[in-house]
Design goal:
By secondary structure, this protein is an all-alpha fold. The protein has 3 domains: 2-115, no CATH class; 123-203, no CATH class; 208-326, no CATH class. It has helices at residues 2-5, 9-18, 22-39, 50-56, 63-72, 90-93, 96-104, 112-115, 123-144, 171-188, 199-203, 208-222, 232-250, 254-277, 289-294, 307-326; strands at residues 76-78, 85-87.
Length: 327
């Protein structure tokens, strides 16, 4: 498994995201797979706490930051089930002895790999598959109905059969034809011009709450301390959750709840800046953005580098000095 890791862009990206040398990122990946093989052979590593995962990987920093980076680089895949996190493509890359261990214990790789992981095909391919299935179902249903309408398949430039009928098509066929038109218009759209939405996009329910709260969360994030805005993608989710909770608890509108949180963040940042200016602390001791919002430190009233922040920063310094000494 490590052979492919030497040229994996995911490992390179992990090094960039975490701000560590590439060999160290390679070591993290190796320890991740070793821990999985020993303690999560089905691939469901998320059944272990983030702190346990970080400890197994010998990570000195915040466990949430590490897991967020591993997820961002697709070494881990999130899932909505109790499994929480899966090692990416574990059934395809696990050492042979892992399969033997599972077989001996009468276990299998997690069903999540075949049921709940995101479809990696393009939107166009997914839409094509949807239309092909719908058309085929319509044809089979019509042919099986005695005296019913029979649809005849004809070829098209996209490889689909366009159903035709002597009588008026039924609703299922109309939907299939509409879907096919959408795909064809997408394929024929000039380059650089937005194409029609695919079936998946047009039928997907819109989360209006998320559409409203995410821009507000971006504004809260922007107020945080410059130089420590690390882990934005994951932190935005925590901020959205906080806005929702404050709005519900205090009966505020989402913009008012976001404004309240932002004012608290700005006050905290002002205190951090003043402590840095007076030499009371250093920027590197201030919490990273993801840590700050994940722990809702804006609620503390007087946030600043706590003992854990200082201890972790000092460990990082020691590691860097050791690296420098070793050349």
């Amino acid at each position: 498994m490590l052979d492919g890791a030497f040229t994996s862009p995911k490992i390179r990206r992990l090094a960039v995201v975490l701000g560590i040398p590439w060999p160290h990122a390679l070591g993290l990946a190796g320890l991740l797979w070793r821990f999985t093989a020993k303690h999560a052979p089905t691939g469901e590593i998320g059944r272990h706490e983030d702190d346990d995962i970080a400890a197994a990987l010998e990570w000195p920093g915040d466990a949430g930051d590490l897991v967020a980076a591993l997820t961002r680089c697709r070494l881990l895949d999130p899932t909505e089930s109790a499994a929480r996190l899966l090692v990416h493509d574990w059934p395809d890359h696990a050492p042979r002895y892992v399969s033997a261990t599972l077989k001996r214990q009468k276990l299998t790789f997690s069903r999540e790999y075949s049921e709940n992981l995101p479809d990696t095909r393009s939107a166009r391919d997914r839409a094509r598959s949807t239309v092909s299935t719908a058309v085929a179902t319509t044809v089979r249903t019509a042919d099986a109905t005695a005296g019913g309408t029979t649809y005849t398949s004809t070829s098209s430039s996209t490889g689909f059969g366009c159903a035709s009928a002597e009588n008026k098509p039924d609703p299922a066929h109309s939907e299939s034809a509409r879907a096919l038109e959408i795909i064809q218009s997408h394929e024929n759209a000039p380059q650089g011009v937005p194409a029609s939405r695919t079936i998946e996009e047009s039928s997907r329910p819109k989360n209006r709450s998320d559409a409203i709260l995410r821009p507000l969360a971006e504004g809260v994030w922007d107020a945080y301390l410059a130089g420590r805005k690390i882990g934005k993608k994951t932190a935005i989710g925590y901020i959205v959750k906080a806005i929702h909770e404050v709005a519900r608890r205090d009966r505020l509108s989402p913009p008012d709840a976001a404004a309240r949180i932002r004012r608290a963040v700005e006050a905290d940042v002002a205190r951090m800046v003043e402590r840095i200016r007076t030499g009371e602390t250093e920027l590197k001791y201030c919490p990273q953005g993801l840590t700050y919002f994940r722990q809702e430190r804006w609620n503390d009233g007087d946030t600043g580098p706590n003992d854990r922040d200082v201890r972790e920063a000092r460990i990082d310094d020691e590691i860097q000095r050791a690296r420098a000494d070793l050349g």
